[in-house]
Amino acid sequence: MSIFNKVLASVGIGAATVDTKLENSRYTAGDVVRGNVEIMGGNVEQNIDRIYLTLYTTYIREADDKKYTDHAAITKFQVSEPFTIGAGEKKSIPFSFNLPYTTPITSGNTRVWVQTGLDIKMAVDPSDKDYIEVNASSLANEVLNAVKSLGFRLKKVDCETAPKRFRTPHVFIQEFEFSATNPTYRSRLDELEVAFLNQSSGSVEVLVQIDRRARGLASFLSEALEMDESFVRLTFTNNDIPMIQSTIKQAIEQHM
Q1: How far is the C-alpha of 19 from the C-alpha of 37, rounded, in Å?
Q2: 24: closest CA among 121, 128, 132?
Q3: Each residue's pLDDT expressed in tens, for the chain with a length of 256 residues
Q4: Distance between alpha carbon 168 and the CA centroid of its chain, in Å?
Q5: Cα R_g (the chain), whole angstroms
Q6: For residue 33, what are the β-bridge partners?
């Protein structure tokens, strides 16, 4: 009977299960995420090689002129050393980790989740998925609010494949697309896009894409050749907060 149970456990029937319990479901980038991984033994004793947590997000990937929703790992770390869990035994292992500042916010179709996995040799690895809500870091939020204060309305937020020409820590980049409500900008710009290339506790590197509105034949040709867009890279620290709005305003008006 014991051998039969081991065979069943190897294909996931009567095997150990895992359930991760997070202290919260809503976080701000940079927060500490705390919780417990609860493992319940199955019908037989099993050796667990390790427990690991992986933070994932969704993003849009294009291939063959089609768009697909894919997922990418943001960070991954090990929670435990190898151990043995007996039949019917219950273990609870606490953990904590810092939510990376590069974690995208959960807006639009973007989702973020913590996935827990157990490594068990010669068996199906059980897993658990816990979705969380993520808000922008305080410094990134200052940038977004500065753009809104200049007379722009947030229209769309998407996570997409990062262009090769812009180095980011991940395969994706989150873009914040704004439309102008300010009459001056509305007559000169089609849209404004903001993306965060790199972030830390004290600084943020911002990419601002300024999309000019076509006016006249030359402008129409430029738009057709995608030459009507300008890219500006800006870096802000916590000390720059009072100047963020004026710096972005200057960058926009230089490229209108």
Answers
A1: 6
A2: 132
A3: 355 344 433 434 446 788 999 999 999 999 999 999 998 887 778 888 888 999 999 999 888 778 888 999 999 999 988 888 888 899 999 999 999 999 999 998 899 999 998 876 644 556 789 999 999 999 999 999 999 999 999 999 999 998 887 778 899 999 999 999 988 888 888 899 999 999 999 999 999 999 876 454 344 334 444 456 789 999 999 999 999 999 999 999 988 7
A4: 12
A5: 24
A6: 97
